[in-house]
Amino acid sequence: MSRRLVHIGSAVVDYVYRIDALPAPGTEKTASSFAQVAGGGFNMMVAASRTGMKVVFGGQLGSGPNGDFLRAAFANEGIETLTPPSLLMDSGNCVAMISGDAERTFVSWPGAESVLSLDMMAPVSAAPGDWVFTSGYTLSYPASRDALTDWIEALPADIPFVFDPTPVISDIPRPILSRVLARTTWLSCNTTEAAEIAGSGNVETVAARLLEVHCPKAAGVVIRAGAKGCYVRLADGSVQTVAGFKVTAIDTNGAGDTHIGAFVSALSRGIPPFEAARYANAAAAISVTRHGGSSAPTDHEIQTFLSHVADPSGAQGRTQKANA
């Protein structure tokens, strides 16, 4: 079995500015530092690759300087691109402003990653042992959402499909979102995105509703809560609040991507879901102590981190069977 991640997402070039605080309207700030880095879906791919998965990219890169930059970054991480580059467009970019409290604000401009067709995706296939991932960003683009949804629905039933709706979930037409959720094996989202899909309520209620109403074929759902960790509910009704790790964050950009990539990588190795969630919490905790969105740690770094910290879960970390 290959344990390969087939990532059908959107990689962009991030232009990262570090500032003490966001400028007021009509004013100007001078950044304390600037960096050009690969971003978007690249962050999740790096997290999976550095923790042991073979990763291939089934989205589209551009043919200009941004595309060239991303191809070099992919090659450096051993990530193969399955589709030919666009002959018409360059890859898109995202301006990321990281403030002194480690929060981030984004402005993006889509490029070649926003266009996918079934013909373009012809070289992309999933084999036994593969895991497939996509995000809400790719489904938010009008020129890619229909083809990608058709492709996802045509996946063989035994291929696990992982979906992250991302903060642009409101830009995904509800019929498209419903079709993708219906094929989802693992849903990973934050608390805001979970409520956008399933309505308001406490995390237990929302997670149950996600599985029962929106993701009927899913093995489980992970609701991420930043530094607090995550809440995991499985299809059999087992639930666990998996506490996060206390660290000093300097850059939260890419933490969610790191969490998902590490979680999928752990699951692909046969690690049980609640243990995989703790592993992912550790990966995300390490990543926020480093600059850059693609700051995911290696498996060795995660194992070393876990060997030096106490289990933060306590009583909440014990597996329970949720009430029907």
Mean pLDDT: 93
Helix content: 25-40%
How many helices in DSSP terms?
10
Name the poorly predicted regions.
none
The assigned CATH architecture is 3-Layer(aba) Sandwich
Largest sheet: 10 strands, mixed
User: Which structural class do you get from the secondary structure elements?
Assistant: alpha/beta
- Reading off the top of the CATH hierarchy, the class is best stated as Alpha Beta
CATH topology: UDP-N-acetylmuramoyl-L-alanine:D-glutamate ligase
Count of the domains: 1
**Distance between the first and last residues' Cα:** 36 Å
Number of strand elements: 14
Strand content: 15-25%
Shape: globular
Main features:
single chain; alpha/beta; 324 residues; 14 strands; globular; 10 helices; ten-stranded mixed sheet; Carboh/pur_kinase_PfkB_CS; 32% helix; kinase; PfkB_dom; UDP-N-acetylmuramoyl-L-alanine:D-glutamate ligase; four-stranded mixed sheet; Ribokinase
Write the layout of secondary structure elements.
Elements: E1 4-7, E2 11-18, E3 33-40, H1 41-50, E4 54-57, H2 65-76, E5 80-81, E6 93-98, E7 104-109, E8 131-135, H3 136-140, H4 145-153, E9 161-164, H5 174-183, E10 186-190, H6 191-198, H7 203-214, E11 220-224, E12 229-234, E13 238-243, H8 255-268, H9 273-287, H10 299-307, E14 320-321
Parallel strand pairs: 1-4, 1-8, 2-6, 4-5, 8-9, 9-10, 10-11
Antiparallel strand pairs: 2-3, 6-7, 11-12, 12-13, 13-14
Describe the structure.
The longest helix is centred in the last third of the chain and has 15 residues, at 273-287. The chain is globular. Helix 1 (41-50) crosses helix 8 and helix 8 (255-268) runs antiparallel to helix 9. The strands form 2 sheets. A 10-stranded mixed β-sheet has the order 5-4-1-8-9-10-11-12-13-14, with helices on both faces. A 4-stranded mixed β-sheet has the order 3-2-6-7. It has one domain: UDP-N-acetylmuramoyl-L-alanine:D-glutamate ligase (3-Layer(aba) Sandwich), CATH 3.40.1190. Helix content is 32%, strand content 22%. Strand 9 (161-164), helix 5 and strand 10 form a beta-alpha-beta unit. The mean pLDDT is 93. By secondary structure, the chain is of the alpha/beta class. The protein starts with a strand and ends with a strand. The chain is built from 10 helices and 14 strands. It has helices at 41-50, 65-76, 136-140, 145-153, 174-183, 191-198, 203-214, 255-268, 273-287, 299-307, and strands spanning 4-7, 11-18, 33-40, 54-57, 80-81, 93-98, 104-109, 131-135, 161-164, 186-190, 220-224, 229-234, 238-243, 320-321. This is Ribokinase. It holds the Pfam family PfkB.
